[in-house]
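To: structure desk
From: M.T.
Subject: fold request, one chain
Message: Could you run this one when you get a chance? Sequence is below, nothing fancy, just the single chain.
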Amino acid sequence: MKKIKFIDNISGLQLFQLLRFTVFLIISIVFTKSHLTKAEIGDWEMFLFIASLVSFFWVTGIIQSLLPIYHRNRTYGKRGENIGEKSPEIFNAFLLLTFFSLLVFLLGFSIKGSVSIFGFSGKDPFIRLLLWYILLSNPVCLIEYIYLLKNRAHRIVQYGVYTFAAQLLMIIGPIVAGKDLFWAFYGLLAITAIRWVWLIVLLKRYSEMKVSFEFMKEHLYLGAPLILTSLISGSAQYIDGIIISAYYKNPEIFAHFRYGAKEFPLVLMLANGLSNAMLLEFSTRSRMKEALGKIKTRSRKLMHFLFPSSMVVMLFTRWLFPRVFTPEFIRSADIFLIYLLLIIPRLVFPQTIVIGRKKTHITLIAAVIELAINIPLSLLLIEPYGTVGVALATFIVYCIEKIFLVWYVWTKMNINPSEYIPLKEYVTYSVLITILFVLIDHRIIDIQ
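Reply: Done. Structure tokens follow.
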């Protein structure tokens, strides 16, 4: 594939994350149209759910803390932007990811005999495949960020196209051919092994293979609050899943919830891509003013595209779900409608400023506030509203977390919201999508 023009670090990472979500969405659609039962689809969703549940927080924390300290840290000093320069920071970040993966793998094997998931015990291949996937899948998350740090944005997109296309074929191919669900798990492990080969090649090319406990200590000092923040704040969707599975004890209801509890991929991926890529911009004080203007400009562009797109999807959600999946999944549409509202907190980026300036303890405080509200609110709303109530609680706590971070950046860092938020566009779009949601929820507008 030739070098892609007009792709920068932000758009490259956004496209990569969008590709990942799109592939898993296609897999979900194919599975609902295949010979697999709803219970088997629930098992697939539970496999991915658990793999992410036990690792998302420390992977996110290690990656996000690497970005602001890559160019400047106490161990190695200031680093230039020479693409060919080999970096010990990258290698030591890889060691940290591998260490945590191995730790979870060994812990899982030690307790697997006492674990049962929807009838699968520690003696079943399901558990063993899950543990091997956890061990192998997490370190390869570093690949796209190696390209990001080396300003090789077009390589991020190329890597995504090649590996996600292969992943799609390896997972749905056996199912379309009539094989059982375990072949999909084998396909997932196979593409993960291919990514490991890719990672090793990149480590040899771009990293200096020099172990530095001093840098890892510095990395973890900055990353520990982010790990805890991700565990608490990012766990909202996992807490939702745990509450649903414990309350109903039914894999079909869990599958219905999981199919609906998905954010609009364009919003999630483009917002996260912008936030992560901009961490590098905020890592030095001299670039603050430029970075604030840049994130405001890029977020305005996202709003003009993502809010109208989300409103169109919202209009057709109840018509779309039974046709994209099957009529049995119509209940998932109401959950998805609420998750579409998450665009309101997603397109504000105070956390990018806070993390980029290495004030990671503030994100931890915000996460604690979120957790303190999320669990009791979910338990309170599940009784009268069922699974929809759990989704509503998630939306509320996400908004509260962003309000706190905006307040901190304004009052403690003296950065006015108008410096990084296009307020006029943001308020207008937020009001419009909320009104549309109310009209659809009360079936004043009903397209089915």
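Reply (cont.): Residues 264-448 form one domain. Let me know if you need anything else for the meeting.
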